[in-house]
Design brief:
With about 220 residues, the chain is α/β, with parallel strands linked by helices. Helices cover about 50% and strands about 15% of the residues. The strands form two sheets. The chain has a five-stranded parallel β-sheet with strand order 2-3-1-4-8, sandwiched between helices. Strands 6-5-7 form a three-stranded antiparallel β-sheet. A hairpin with a 5-residue loop joins strand 5 and strand 6. The termini are close together.
Amino acid sequence: MARYIILLGAPGAGKGTQAQIIHEKLGLPHISSGEIFRENLKNQTELGTLAEGYIKAGQLVPDEIAIKMIKERLSQPDCAYGAILDGFPRTTHQADALGQMLAEFNSSVECVLYITVDDQVLIERLSGRWVCRAEGHVYHVIYNPPKQPGICDIDGSALYQRDDDKPETVRQRIKVYYQQTQPLIDYYQQKGLLREIDGNQSIDEINEDIMKVLERIGVQ
């Protein structure tokens, strides 16, 4: 049976990092909604063109478009045995749609890993993040500093801080995340699928807790 795992957590909680480690250990593909959006926009697919219209108008992309993009991705052969979903669903409507989608595949959500992190830790993590202009390689002034300040180790391009990683913006992003995501947390808690993971620990400790949860529910 296919294994579908959802990762929830505020910006800076480490969802992408943990998804990659789970992928390496279990072989399940890491499905990032952000990457799917970027790919569709870059390749000017029909769905990407539709989404671009809303983005240029400063509007949120409707759930229906996001759902179609995810369904298209989950229909690909590498997802036949399941996937790790990062960034989707974002709303209870999307969660309902995902449940219906997986039912069509004769499957369902196995568990929802909710990585919880103290706000101050999130702010420290995100406001210390710098990105290279050429390829988007990510650095952190505390956890992963470049060998030469302001320069990417890999391609030598200049590093910059994204506007949404500046401290004042980070606080607002966290606030909005909690407002938008609480209904989704409640939704999966009521279904008995939510598993809280302490995200204040080291990457290895977080992953150890995650693997223990997955082992307990038979995902190996």
